[in-house]
C-alpha cells in the first residue's frame, strides 16, 4: 500500500499503478538474467504481481477492481518491461484479456462478462490468450455432441501458460465452405488439458509461451461465448485487435527504453566524439518514433469505436512501433560498443527480447495489404 493510500489521500489508478510497479521493477530486474539463462518461467514474478494487486488492475471498480483504463494499463506494462521483458510481455496477455471484457461491460453493456471480471478481482485468476494460433483463421477442432462440443487442438505461443487458470480460446466447427469458430474459456486444471514444456526461444525466454494441448474437452453449449465465420473479421475481433495490441506493444516499448537507458549509461563513460553523438541521436530519434506510434495506438483505443478503421490505425502503429523499437535496440548495441556484447550489461538479452515484436499479428505482409486495401477502398474482411 502506498503512503497516499495509507493516509486516505485519493490517488488515480495511474498513480497507484506507477507506485506499485515502481517498487517491483528493481526486484524484477534482479532476477531477469537468471530466468533468461535457464529458459525458466517467471513464476516468482507472477506472485509479486498478485501481491501488488496488479492482476485485477483492469477490472472496473464497480466489480471489485482498480478500474484502470487501457492507457494506464499500457503504462504499467511499459514500466514492468524496464525490470523484466518476459514478465511484461506474458502479463500483457492476461491484461488484455481483462481489458477487453471490461471495455465491453463499460461501453456495450455486455452483462455476460461480469462474472468473469468479478472472479478476476476476487480470486485473482490468471487469464491466458492463445494468441496468434487463434487468430482470424482459428485453430483446433470442435465436434458437435449432445449438449455441447468436444474440443481438441494444440494452442501454440500461450504466454504465461504455467500460471494460467483460464485459457480464452476457440476451435473450428467444420462445415465445408461455411466453417465456424466457436469461442469459450478452458479451465487449465481440466484433465483434458496439458501444458507442454517446450518454450525454447531466441528471446522472451521467461514468458512460458508453451504449447497447450486440449484432448477431447467437453464444452457445454451454455459456455460458448460467441460464434463467428472462420477466416473473416468479426466485430468482436475488431474490439480485440483494437484493445489488445496497444497493451502488448507497451511491453516492447519498455524494452526499447530499457536498452536506451543502459546504452546511455555506458556511453557517458566514454570520451565524447562526433560518432558517439551521431549514434546517440539516431537512437533517441528512433525511440521517439516508437513512442509516437504507441501514443497513436492508445489514442485510437480511446476513440471507443472499434472498427475496420481502428484496426488499421492500431496495426499501422504496431508496425511503426516494432520497426523503431527494434532499431532503437540495435543502435543501443552500437552506442555501447563491445560492452553491449557482454551479458553482464543486459543489452544482448534486450536485443534478443525485442525481436519478438516482429511476430505478433498483423505481421508485415498482412499489415501492409490491410493498409493498402483500406487506402484503395477495397475489402479487408479476409486480410489478416
Automatic annotation (TrEMBL):
InterPro entries: Acyl-CoA_Oxase/DH_mid-dom (IPR006091), Acyl-CoA_Oxase/DH_mid-dom_sf (IPR046373), AcylCo_DH-like_C (IPR036250), AcylCo_DH/oxidase_C (IPR009075), AcylCoA_DH/ox_N (IPR013786), AcylCoA_DH/ox_N_sf (IPR037069), AcylCoA_DH/oxidase_NM_dom_sf (IPR009100). Its cofactor is FAD. It comes from the Bacteria. Residues 276-358 form the Acyl-CoA dehydrogenase/oxidase C-terminal domain. Keywords: FAD, Flavoprotein, Oxidoreductase. Residues 28-101 form the Acyl-CoA dehydrogenase/oxidase N-terminal domain. The keyword Transmembrane helix does not apply. The keyword Oxidoreductase applies. Residues 131-215 form the Acyl-CoA oxidase/dehydrogenase middle domain. Belongs to the acyl-CoA dehydrogenase family. This is Acyl-CoA/acyl-ACP dehydrogenase. It comes from Plastoroseomonas hellenica.
